[in-house]
Structure formats: C-alpha cells, structure tokens
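Quick start: read one record
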Amino acid sequence: MSAKTDRIILTFFGSGYFPVAPGTAGSAASLAVGALLWFQLPEAALPFLFPVLTLISMAGCVLPGERIQSLFGRKDPGVVVIDEAAGQYAALSVMPWLPQTWTPWILAFLLFRLFDILKPFGIRKLEEKPGGWGVLLDDVAAGILAAVILLGLAQLPGDLLSRF
C-alpha cells in the first residue's frame, strides 16, 4: 500500500487528526460507521457485522504495523486510531444479544473509552508487543472487557439496558 493509503486507514479516514482527544474521535467515528451499517443491513447479517469489522480494523493496524513509526515518527502516535476502531467494534460485537435501544450503544462507547484510557487488569502490558500488535492489542482487550461488562449488565434484573 502507499503511504497515503496507510495514513487514511491508520487514522480511520482522518478522524485521528481531530485536534482534541483523537482516540475518542476515532471511537466515535467507528461507532457512527457501525451504527450506519447496523441499521442498513439485514437482520441475518447483524451477528457477523462487528466481529468482521473488528477483524478488518485489526488487519488495518497490524499490516502496516512496522511502517507506523516511519509514517508518524512514533510507535503509537495519537493520530493512529484504527486500533480504537478495532476496540470499539469488539465492544459492539455483543449488540445482537442486547436490548435494541440506544443505551447499549452509549455504554459500549463509554465503557470502551474508560477501559482504553485506564487499561485495567494488565491491559497496559499488551502495549509492549512488537509493531502494530503493540498498538492494537490493548484496545481490543479494552473492547472485549467492555463487551463482557455489557453482557453482564444485560443479565441484571430490572432490564437496566432497556430503560432509556
């Protein structure tokens, strides 16, 4: 791929250039793309949507992985947000099994951002992996943690995720 194509993919179509909180901007952009696809695709495709988007985003981070530093001058620069897209899609991967309200969408976004920033339970150690893997795996782990929490919340009595 060309350097220009790598930059477009790695910045998730330029959302990583947002001047404030580019990771949050990348997550919001991926959430918007995911929601757009979710509401356009047939119901039979929905269980596959976010796992497939997670894998595509992971490939978009890992394949140019060694070139990230030469393109941006750092191993994990703020403008590279394809990893946030992968993590956000991992968090959204449980959507077919959650109430179909806006609450799970909002919680998936907030929980993923929280876990991506705080990096609890040893998630920070994943940043030490080489190349694009070190950029990617902490975000995917944060997304998986968010998905697990969402599934747990859906099991609580009182229908918490359907109320809003």
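The CA atoms of residues 20 and 133 lie 25 Å apart.
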